[in-house]
Design a protein that fits this description.
Length: 528
């Protein structure tokens, strides 16, 4: 997608350069006519003009490559979340340099050839005369207008795509996670380095929770096997109920957590209780389930007090003591799934997530947490510390990167299209200086002249917007799989893009139109 976006921006840029070369060729028309009259071959002049384009493109390509070399760090920063950048090395290499030079040469030949052939297509008798006026400018103006329409149409496509991606990102960020991320810090801890057995690890983690929980500014602290965006642990349970059929194995998502887990994560309790200190290995095996699991496996009544097993043997029954709200685990876009939580005391083992809910004034307690863990076991390293809000945000790295880059390139395309429109109208006003002078001498008001120039520019813009909307409707369907909460043909996005482009185009057209109204009829009629 990003490669296509960059390609479209390159096309818009090349269209702008082609317009400038057309204007330059028109200015050099007398020089070219004189060369032809003195015996120069047209093909030789075409080669000269294309060579000039190649020199421009070569210099620009080298400058662009140098800019890309500098900009790779910015690109990695845009794709990263948090203070640490992603460990990616995207420094341009010889292959990228070769591709850049090839693209520069191809752009120069393709978009430099047409202005070159147009500039050398001259009428010697007409071009060698003193007067310029608008004579011979029609073909250049016509081609320039076509290029402007193409620029506007491509800009609409890019801006619509950027708008859809931005709206998708906003929609994803507004999805309820089922837990409260505010004032929660997530520590990644590697318990495997302690060298302890599962039961010993369980005792160590429980003691760590108790000590951290007593620190000032800590409201809750809990270990868990999994948290958001860390994959999933799914295995079979047996519900021992009539619906689903008795003894039928069912795959449900599972997690092992400590006593304070639901308070630390801010997951609301629907009914029953959560885990307590009495839920030990010697007591009745218990579990807390999500609303979806309770509703799906026990549709005829309350799931509290019901039993299920990890095997079909009823001697291994587990009692449901609580029901909690559904929460997201693998992604923000996942549907609600059945979830069962087991207490860490009854299923000890290596866990990696230490979740700490802090009071609003307890943001500086993390160093004390580090010291506490180090005192308990010096081989208990902390691999990462991140707020739960940032941890959730990390799951949207791809969507953020696409939205940011698409928005950047969309705005760049808008700027290029407005510059192209301004350039064509400015050139047109300069070429029509005599005509404007005659119109004003015959009684045309400054408002009439302004309307004439504005009408010319806005007509090109409206045609380009219409073509761009049609192209966007056809092309945005190709990225519909990447959208969320918005359709590929969202009317709000299309309308906002069209309106923004029309406003910018009006400003770009107004400046040449205003300049046209300042033409002095006497000076214009004497112009060359």
């Amino acid at each position: 997608i990003l490669m296509v976006v960059v390609g479209v921006v390159l096309l818009i840029s090349c269209a702008n350069i082609a317009n400038l070369l057309l204007a330059r060729g028109a200015v050099r028309k007398k020089e070219i006519a004189l060369r032809l009259a003195l015996g120069a071959r047209r093909l030789s002049l075409v080669r000269q003009l294309i060579t000039e384009s190649l020199i421009l493109a070569g210099v620009a390509g080298v400058a662009g490559f140098a800019l890309a070399w500098w900009g790779t760090g910015l690109l990695v920063a845009m794709a990263s979340n948090g203070p640490r950048p992603l460990p990616l090395d995207i420094t341009p290499n010889l292959r990228v340099l070769g591709f850049t030079l090839l693209a520069s040469v191809a752009a120069a030949i393709v978009f430099g050839a047409t202005p070159a052939f147009s500039a050398t297509r001259v009428d010697l008798n007409t071009s060698l005369k003193e007067g310029k006026g608008a004579v011979g400018a029609n073909s250049q103006n016509r081609l320039g207008r076509i290029l402007v329409v193409a620029q506007v149409a491509l800009t609409v496509v890019l801006m619509v795509g950027a708008g859809l991606f931005v709206r998708t990102l906003v929609n994803l960020q507004n999805i309820p996670t089922g837990f409260n991320e505010t004032n929660v810090t997530l520590l990644q801890i590697d318990t495997a380095t302690t060298g302890l057995k599962d039961a010993q690890i369980g005792n160590l983690l429980i003691e760590a929770e108790d000590r951290v929980r007593r620190l000032p500014g800590v409201e809750a602290a809990s270990f868990s096997f999994l948290t958001f965006n860390q994959g999933g642990w799914t295995s079979t349970i047996y519900t021992f109920v009539e619906t689903p059929p008795k003894g039928e194995g069912n795959l449900v998502r599972q997690n092992t957590v400590s006593v304070d887990y639901f308070k630390a994560m801010g997951i609301p309790i629907v009914s029953g209780r959560v885990f307590e200190a009495r839920d030990t290995d010697a007591s009745q095996k218990v579990a807390v389930v999500s609303e979806t699991m309770a509703r799906h496996y026990y549709p005829s009544g309350d799931a509290l007090g019901k039993h299920f097993g990890k095997t079909s043997d009823k001697r291994d029954e587990i009692e449901i003591v609580g029901i909690v709200k559904d929460a997201k685990y693998q992604s923000l876009t996942e549907n609600s799934r059945s979830m069962v939580y087991f207490p860490l005391k009854q299923r000890p083992g290596p866990v990696v997530n230490f979740i700490i809910r802090l009071s609003p004034d307890g943001q500086n307690v993390i160093p004390a947490v580090r010291r506490t863990l180090a005192e308990l076991n010096s081989n208990l390293p902390i691999d990462d510390i991140v707020s739960l809000q940032d941890h959730v945000s990390r799951s949207l790295v791809q969507q953020k990167l696409i939205a940011r880059l698409a928005s950047f390139f969309g705005l760049l395309a808008l700027m290029l299209a407005s510059i192209g429109l301004y350039g064509v109208l400015s050139y047109s006003v300069a070429r029509r200086r005599n005509e404007i002078g005659i119109r004003m001498a015959l009684g045309a008001s400054t408002l009439d002249v302004m309307k004439m120039v504005l009408r010319s520019g806005m007509t090109l813009t409206i045609v380009g917007v219409a073509l761009g909307v049609g192209g966007a409707i056809a092309l945005t369907r190709l990225v519909s799989a990447l959208l969320f909460g918005v359709t590929a043909t969202d009317l709000t996005t299309f309308f906002a893009v069209a309106l923004a482009l029309l406003v910018v185009a009006f400003v770009a057209c107004y400046i040449p139109a205003r300049r046209a109204t300042r033409v002095d009829p006497l000076i214009a009629l004497r112009y060359e």
